[in-house]
Amino acid sequence: MLLDEDPATLIHHTIGNFNITPDKLAVSRINESLSTLQQARDLRVREAESALKKLSRKLTTLNNHHLETIASHSVTAHASEIATLDTQKFRIAKSANDLEIESERLSSQLADLQARLQELELQGVDGGENARRGLLYDEISLKLKVYRSLGVDVDRDEKGQYAKAVIRNGNKGDVHVINMDGKFSQFFYANYFWSTM
């Protein structure tokens, strides 16, 4: 009978009939594959952790740089600097305008002085014909000299009458031209001359 045989022999024959060697080899290959896969996964995880640490350090550095930039560049300080520069720009423009006005005034004064110089050169060293003749200034010449010292130049027309006056105010840098055609009284002209000087 079958059960009368030794159980070890029966088990041995049963194992031989199942032929589990290929299965054992397959399980061994699967274990090796799982081990290789686990190692590859561990390597990828370590690489990802290393890249994450690098990115984290870079983010920290950039955040610190950003905070330093914001701290060093204040919006209120920038606005204040812009306002200061605008104020300086307007001051410079005003100074340039004032210098231009002063330049025009000095040009006018230079033209007057050149005309006076030319007049003196025409008179010569001895003072012209009147001085050579030993004549004194008459009343009209003295009046003209006083007028010129006050900044008033009077021009004659073709008839020899005084028809136009040019009044220069050196303090204000103004020049006024007045036509004296007799429409107004001498009192009016005198007041006008004094108000413009």
Can you offer a commentary on this structure?
Keywords: Cell cycle, Cell division, Centromere, Chromosome, Coiled coil, Kinetochore, Mitosis, Nucleus. By secondary structure, the chain is mainly alpha-helical. It contains 6 helices and 3 strands; from the N terminus they run αααααβββα. The protein folds into 3 domains: 44 residues; 56 residues; 61 residues, Double Stranded RNA Binding Domain (2-Layer Sandwich). The chain has a 3-stranded antiparallel beta sheet with strand order 1-2-3. β1 and β2 form a beta hairpin. About 3% of the residues have low confidence.
Please state the structural category: mainly alpha
SS strand fraction: 5-15%
CATH-defined topology of the largest domain: Double Stranded RNA Binding Domain
Q: From the 3D coordinates, which CATH architecture of the largest domain would you assign?
A: 2-Layer Sandwich
On the 0-100 scale, what is the average pLDDT?
A: 81
Tell the overall outline. rod-shaped
Number of domains: 3
CA-based gyration radius:
57 Å
- SSE order, as H and E? HHHHHEEEH
Q: Largest sheet, described in full? A: 3 strands, antiparallel
Sequence-ordered SSE layout with sheet pairings:
Blueprint: H1 7-18, H2 21-72, H3 75-123, H4 128-133, H5 139-149, E1 152-156, E2 162-169, E3 174-179, H6 186-196
Antiparallel strand pairs: 1-2, 2-3
Task: Record keyword descriptors for this entry.
197 residues; mainly alpha; Double Stranded RNA Binding Domain; 3-stranded antiparallel beta sheet
In summary, what is this structure?
It is found in: Cytoplasm, Cytoskeleton, Microtubule organizing center; Nucleus; Chromosome, Centromere, Kinetochore. Component of the NDC80 complex. It contains six helices and three strands, in the order H-H-H-H-H-E-E-E-H.
